[in-house]
């Protein structure tokens, strides 16, 4: 089976160079706000789906929760495992494949770690696995970019210089996907990667979640939990429960 773009790119050392300046303060602010809103019990079991290097998982664990982080990237999980303890675990796992059943109180999928697959059915199937891993009264928190605003303000081309590498980043919208091409040279070798993320709207998520047996209970438009406004919000944050 042919490997997908995310299986190559997320395991590349260049991915971590390009995105080294992740904003931890912003991530922690969001976790503070969302946990205050959903009020999980102190010993809640949480699943961080597509956890990357584990920044959200680590902070949730610091707040006292029992956290499991899963990600497809072996490199990211290898890094995250340095932070493991009795109530914090990381595993290489594909979000489309079934994990524990009726086990977690809360599942989170943050920072647009969704929309990577080719078909809507694949995304619905992933949402079904999210649902199955939750207890009957479990909560799913899904954080996506606000597609409408992203497309309206698309930066078509930019150069980012990091660690002596000039990354040329070009963005376009093709067949309902936001495509980011990343081209650069390192040690006289030319590299080219891309990210392909579905341009899902609120209506798309509502339809897919319904198919997956879930209901949207609340929608926010920023990490400060402002109301979602399709024209102006930076994020689309969905709080969902089992139907």
From TrEMBL:
Residues 47-138 form the Methyltransferase domain. One of its GO terms (molecular function) is methyltransferase activity. It comes from the Bacteria. This is Class I SAM-dependent methyltransferase. Keywords: Methyltransferase, Transferase. Coiled coil: none annotated. GO terms for biological process: methylation. The lineage of its organism: Bacteria, Pseudomonadati, Bacteroidota, Sphingobacteriia, Sphingobacteriales. Pfam families: Methyltransf_25. The keyword Magnesium does not apply.
